[in-house]
Design goal:
There is one protein chain. The protein is mainly α. The protein is built from 18 helices and no strands. The chain is about 65% helix and about 0% strand.
Length: about 350
């Protein structure tokens, strides 16, 4: 008996699931007072329409994202109403591509060297997950970020360090939080684990300019070729994109894409540990403590997800470390929606 988990069956089922949900969404939007389309999708498409008119995407109130997203969704502003779903289709395709990268990672030596059938079984948890498919087909852009992060992990496992740096820089520009994966990747690039056989040579040590057991030697050994390449490529990509967007959109780009999130108070997201305190801060701004919880909440979140977990786990299992980081980041995030949990 042939296996149910073949590439043709898994990927065709994943595509069919999303096509059905897209069509159902059109029906519900047309005939139900409760819309299938996510409210954020209307924000994205409004911003894209402004861009198509030569205006700033930040003319759309509550648009808090990179202009790249609005640029990608310009087709949704075209007059044929069918183009309005272009973004949903793009996000759904991103889901499929993320699943494909997941299979490739699981089949790689550093991912466990699984058979294709077994890798497809694990990837099906994502590809055939109705929650994942629903979120992307409702118009959440998290699928785009998801494929960037999974592609980042794939690039590291394939030792494509320059490409990995480029993907991290792009992902952090797109949304801030993927920067937490940077420390894990940098730390893992010095690993001697057989699961992560990377280049750990330091140019300085190779030239005999230091004792590897001295403090100077340890410091020099840390800056191996892979780490330097990764840091330069990620910083160059992130800086280039930000400079370009700042040159075009000036201060509103910095304010809405980055700075806004440092002081954001959003008490409508009930999954957050800080929901009640943020609700009080929003409702009674003059009667709460002078300490700004919306800013202090980052301290435990970043300490755990960006420092402690990478130091403890990154050299043992990079994929597992990134999973633990994501879980910790979401658990301590001050804004927790279903998309964030995804």
């Amino acid at each position: 008996m042939s296996s149910l988990f073949t590439p043709a069956r898994v990927y065709s089922s994943a595509i069919a699931l999303r096509v059905v949900l897209l069509l159902y969404g059109l029906f519900q939007d047309a005939y139900s007072p409760i819309k299938y389309t996510d409210i954020d999708y209307f924000v994205f498409t409004d911003a894209a329409r402004y861009v198509s008119q030569g205006r700033s995407p930040y003319d759309r109130e509550t648009y808090r994202y990179t202009p790249l997203l609005a640029w990608l969704l310009i087709p949704t502003s075209w007059h044929n109403h069918l183009w309005f779903s272009f973004g949903k289709i793009l996000f759904a395709i991103s889901d499929i591509v993320a699943g494909w990268f997941t299979v490739r990672i699981l089949q790689s030596p550093s991912g466990g060297a699984m058979s294709r059938e077994r890798a497809l079984k694990y990837a099906s948890i994502w590809l055939l997950n109705p929650m994942v498919a629903t979120i992307s087909t409702r118009g959440s852009s998290e699928g785009l970020l998801g494929v960037m992060v999974v592609a980042l992990l794939w690039a590291v496992t394939r030792r494509q360090i320059g490409l990995a740096g480029l993907l991290l820089g792009l992902a952090v520009h797109f949304k801030i939080y993927p920067f937490i994966y940077g420390p894990s990747i940098v730390w893992s690039l010095g690993s001697s684990s057989p699961r992560d056989p990377v280049d750990k040579r330091s140019p300085a040590i190779d030239r005999g300019t230091g004792n590897p057991h001295s403090i100077k030697g340890i410091v020099l050994a840390f800056f191996n070729r892979s780490r330097i390449t990764f840091c330069i490529s990620s910083l160059a990509t992130f800086a280039s994109l930000n400079l370009l967007m700042y040159a075009i959109y000036s201060t509103p780009f910095l304010q809405h894409t980055f700075l806004y999130h440092l002081t954001r108070i959003d008490h409508r997201h009930n999954f957050s540990l800080y929901n009640t305190l943020l609700h009080l801060s929003s409702a009674l701004p003059d009667k709460v403590s002078s300490l700004k919880l919306e800013s202090l909440a980052f301290i435990p979140q970043l300490l755990i997800s960006g420092v402690l977990i990478p130091l403890a786990l990154a050299k043992k299992d990079l994929a597992g470390t990134m999973l633990a980081q994501t879980f910790a980041f979401v658990a301590f995030n001050k804004v927790c929606t279903s998309q964030v949990r995804l």
